[in-house]
Amino acid sequence: MNRSAAGQDLPDLIVGANYHPHDSDPATWRRDAAMMREAGIRLVRLGHLAWDTFEPSDGVFTFDWFDEVMDLMQDHGIAVVLDLAVRPAPLWLHRKHPSIDVVDANGNRLYPNHRYMDDVGDPAFRSHAMRFAAKVTERYAAHPALAAFGIDNEPGDGPISYSETVRARFIAWLQEKYGTVEALNTAWAGHRWSRRVGDFADVGLPKSGTYSGAPERVLDFRRLVSHEVETYLGELLDVVDANAPGVLTTTNMWYYADGKHFDYAPIAYKGRITRAGNGFYPGGTAIGDDGLRGALFGMARIQYENTTPFWCTEFTTMTAVPGSIRKSAYASLMLGNQLVCGWTWQTMHAGEEQFLQGMVDWDGRPNRKLDEYRRIAAEFAKLQGSGFPYRPRPEIAVALDFPSQIASAALPERHDAQARTAFEAVLDRNLDARLVDLARSGLDYKLLVIPGVLVLDEAAAARVRDFVERGGTAIMTSYSATLDADGQAFAATRPGRLDDVFGIRVGSYEETAMLNELALGRTGVEQLDVEYDGRTITAATPRFDLVEPGTADVLARAAGLDGRPALVTANRYGAGRAVYVALPARREILDPLLDSELARLGVAPGPQVPAGVMARALDDRHVLYLNLDAEPKPIAFHGKGTGVLADARHDGGFILGAYDAEVVAFE
């Protein structure tokens, strides 16, 4: 058992539900709590998106009704994650402080029709949000049902505001960062297209209607937005630390939403959110695993290098194929998840998600999703003491970088798409991997993939150089190390700051379809034939780099193109090895490259299982297996063991059913 600061005993693996008591009445709460206990639900997440229920008018707080909910959950043995529901802000707060309103890039003030239409950098918003958070934490910090406080919900969602108050804060941020307009003009290349800043008052926001400003300005503005979200979340954590020291914190940290994708690394590396969390939404299908892999990548990009258990504070229900929720639950355990918390308990009667199906229908009758969560809960109870929550032991890292994500908008492929490709290449080998921030990580790994890290500052470059010099292998893909921290292209030889480490010069790029007009006599073909290790591999890419080897050896070349350009090189540097791939991350190239480099480094392979089976050795006795496919798979091993879920003895192996999971305890 795990014990929270408030005294809650939490099992090794937890099944929970998101619950909205402000939608109903005490009789319904009592009915639901009894149903939850019967189904094995041990935790509920409460309070999110409900600020004005707790504070219906300025300074008037109503907690008595919620005291009853907390006591009810305690009576039923159900722990509570209590969200600090400071977004969306109440309408009375928007009326009192219109500066909180979002203003679009056309200058139109937007009525808060949708959730998250709040400017979290606004001082008036901050003061009221922290007052509310203080009231909640003071009241419930010592409640015996409390397991954790939730820090906001989906802070990366919602539109960016382009108001005059935001512009004023942007100017103040730039003044602090640069000091003088001369330094600002240097960083922003103000001479380009006659956009010199003569006074900080000349600074505007880098979006005017549908027109975006220069990339250097966009990058700095998005850094400001990130800084404001980071400091806002930091203030919430300060409130929790002051009023509830030692209480766990978690969140649904969807920071990479399209609306307000911000830099989460500074928060992640401080470790103040003690149970990193996110919603797990792989889609409802059981056939095909692209959505599942995407959801696992979402976990990894929030966990970074934290070693505490992950909490999926939301988990799919909706109309998921029967059995697919269970499949997703076991897949999430492979990355260290401890909590499967279904969104949502009851299908909501009103609002934007009233047709998003939960575990309980509108009339209070349970449906098949609750049956599936009941099964998961019963199985998780069986797995107590079997090595959960899993603690990954990675020897491989994949770099993830916020400035590169923003700057790569100018490229055919965003940085995180390359990072996901690299992550999945490791995942499919049943090996652990961490996503890392280059400038913050100690890079204590054997192999590092740098997938299209477009922006490379001095600190990150120094970490990479040191990593290779002391014996690590770095694999860098196209678009990497092209821009400096200001977002300007390196004037020196690329890869910027690391050309000697990789032993190459990266020149301009070619567009594959253009060169294929000469090679193939037709247009629009982005296929590139690659001669690698005695075979020809075909990969699709819109562009590839022109690489001139210096001290590096050539491992692969483009076949059928004039001059057979080098596409993969490897260079010895110090005690390590630096590999450059002149294409964006592609499995056709990464897979054989990883095979050879991991073998060279002596990285032990993952559990040996058929294709389509995920597996992890949880400890020295237990192995978790999950069949992702619709066909039974033979699992072979040495020795004897017992299937914990099926309570079956095995000698030398067993047959794992379609979409099935099992944990084998070996003798």
Automatic annotation (TrEMBL):
Organism: Glycomyces artemisiae
Domain Beta-galactosidase trimerisation: 404-601
Residues in Glycoside hydrolase family 42 N-terminal domain copies: 19-382
Catalytic reaction(s) noted: Hydrolysis of terminal non-reducing beta-D-galactose residues in beta-D-galactosides
Family: Belongs to the glycosyl hydrolase 42 family.
PANTHER family referenced in this protein's UniProt entry, alphabetically: BETA-GALACTOSIDASE GANA
A molecular-function term among this protein's GO annotations: beta-galactosidase activity
GO biological process terms, semicolon-separated: carbohydrate metabolic process
Enzyme Commission numbers on file: 3.2.1.23
Protein name: beta-galactosidase
Record's keyword terms, sorted: Glycosidase, Hydrolase
Top-level EC class as recorded in UniProt: hydrolase
Pfam family, one: Glyco_hydro_42
Tagged with keyword Cell cycle: no
Gene Ontology terms: cellular component: beta-galactosidase complex
